[in-house]
Amino acid sequence: MKIGLLGFGTVGRGVVERIQMTNQQLTNTLSQQINIEAVLIKNHQKHQAEKQTLFVTNDWQVFSQKCDYDVVFEAIGGLEPAYEYTRFFLEKGIPVVSANKKLVAEKGSELEEIAESRNIFYSYEAAVAGGIPIINLLEGSLSTTPISKITGILNGTTNYILTEVKEKGVTVEEALSQAQLLGYAESDPKDDIEGYDAWYKIRILAKLCFGSWLNPNKVERKGLNDVQQWHIELGQKLGLTLKLVAEAAYLGDGEAKAEVAPAFISNDHPFTYVNGVTNAILIEGPTIGQLCLQGPGAGKEATANSMVEDLLFQSNYEGKRSKSSGVQSEVANSFNHYFIFVANEDLQEGILEVEKDDNQICAQYSHPEGEVYVVKGQDITSPFPVIKIIGDWDPAQVKVETESAILFSL
Ligand SMILES: NC(=O)c1ccc[n+]([C@@H]2O[C@H](COP(=O)([O-])OP(=O)(O)OC[C@H]3O[C@@H](n4cnc5c(N)ncnc54)[C@H](OP(=O)(O)O)[C@@H]3O)[C@@H](O)[C@H]2O)c1
Predict the structure, then answer these.
(1) What is the three-class DSSP state of 224?
(2) Pick from 303, 330, 357: which residue ends a domain?
(3) Which ligand 1 atom is at minimum distance from the Cα of 14?
(4) Which residues span the domain enclosing 103?
(5) Does residue 277 sit within a domain?
(6) Residue 358 scores a pLDDT above 90
(7) Do 168 and 158 touch, CB atoms closer than 8 A?
(8) What is the pLDDT of residues 237-253, one digit of tens each?
(9) Does 405 fall in a domain?
(10) Pairing outcome for strands 71-74 and 122-123
(11) How confident is the model at residue 401 (pLDDT cuts 50, 70, 90)?
């Protein structure tokens, strides 16, 4: 089997190493030897060492004209030129295995259509939650399972930051600097902090669970930008852990809703102890109850492992790959607790705003920096920071840990 490899960074290198490490098993499984025919990179100078063992080029014409690949792996990232290159191979009838969440979320619909019309696969197991085999689980073992809701911690960088804040008492900014030092966060962390990374991923998962691509304009996205230290502290005192959560739920009649937002997790929820760069995904449906997966969301070995397994899965799988529909979730009618945070300087305006929408205020807690109003409702919005609570949490059951920090609850 002849492989063309687009990109030779963290993931591309991992793919080559994984193929070399398990070459014999792969040969036995595929009944043929796998060979990396050519590797496309951008900067020639960086790749002198690899040229001893691999055919490495920065010339797209050279790479594309070889064109007798059986499969192409895309590990360049971003929209262009990954989109143009992927399209080129799919149109030629050559299947593509991708790790590129942004490309899949933005152009997946069109690329899948091309692949389907050529009766080949465009697959992207590694694009969501790196090492967790969620895509092929949804397309394989759960392909006819009705799913009502899928929830995930899909961004390792923000989960690392929030874990450090909780465990070491550092600020979000300090934890971000540490994440950058350790290589968990890019020098420009916008995609992670502003929630774009998780937003691409939940759009992909929603498509697989409910059968069609959502309109991206209707998928809400909030990152950690509005989260302040005292919000996190107050949540912790009430037994809640802050996470950046992505969620998609089926509402019935072909409609689904999805969002990425910070959420407080109650301590009985499976996500409470998902720490550091680890990812987790909770799938819910009437025939499976709750199914929770947890594992590495990124990293060279785990991501490359997913790409290679993706090739094997797709090569052996002849069933229909996409799910037809979801099953209605209770989300449409469910009431949740939300925290609305109002800083001291905004208190006058804040209480008017909180009371304005006939919100059912069920508790109020004070912090030296401001007040939090606990409101029960559906899709609560406010000009002030709002954080939803996930899991079973009832203000009536809360034991206030620090009386001096929290003055009263209604
Ligand atoms: N890193 C992870 O843990 C991880 C996990 C899951 C998914 N992913 C996804 O995997 C993809 C690759 O990520 P990565 O971390 O491996 O990125 P990376 O380390 O930055 O590697 C990107 C590779 O693509 C090459 N490249 C960039 N622009 C190019 C162009 N215009 N033409 C040809 N080659 C080009 C680069 O060439 P040079 O080497 O010459 O610069 C480099 O080899 C992304 O979509 C990412 O979201 C990554």
Answers:
(1) coil
(2) 330
(3) 16
(4) 2-123
(5) yes
(6) no
(7) no
(8) 999 999 999 999 999 99
(9) no
(10) unpaired
(11) low
Q: Which of 2, 101, 102, 201 is catalytic?
A: 201
CA distances to 78, 146, 165, 169, 199 from 179, in Å:
21, 38, 12, 15, 20
Residue 320 appears among annotated catalytic residues: no
- Count of domains observed in the chain: 3
- Pocket around ligand 1 at a 6 A CB cut-off: 7-12, 40-43, 46, 75-77, 81, 99-101, 126, 130, 298-299, 303
Which residues contact residue 66 at a Cβ distance below 8 angstroms, ignoring those fewer than 6 apart? Answer: 4, 37, 38
In a shared domain, residues 171 and 284: yes
- Cα of 8 from ligand 1 centre, angstroms: 7
For residues 149 and 280, state if they share a domain. Answer: yes
Same domain assignment for residues 276 and 171: yes
Residue 301 lies in a domain: no
CB 6 within 8 A of CB 37: no
Q: Which of 55, 88, 123 is the last residue of a domain?
A: 123
338: which 2 tokens? 């939300």
* Rg of the chain taking only CA atoms, in angstroms: 23
The residue contributing the CA closest to ligand 1 atom 23 is 7
Question: Which CATH number do you get for residue 40?
Answer: 3.40.50.720
Tokens coding 113: 């259509």
**Residue 11 forms part of a structural domain:** yes
Q: What is the pLDDT of residue 52?
A: 85
Nearest to 198 by CA among 228, 156, 226, 165: 156
CA of 7 to the centre of ligand 1 (A): 5
Same domain (yes/no): 145, 281: yes
402/410 Cα distance (integer angstroms) = 16
**What's the CATH code of the domain at 393?**
3.30.70
In the block, tokens 């619909």 appear at 109
Give the DSSP H or E segment for 38.
strand 35-40
Q: Is residue 32 predicted with pLDDT exceeding 80? A: yes
For residue range 326-335, what is the model confidence (pLDDT) as tens digits? Answer: 898 887 677 8
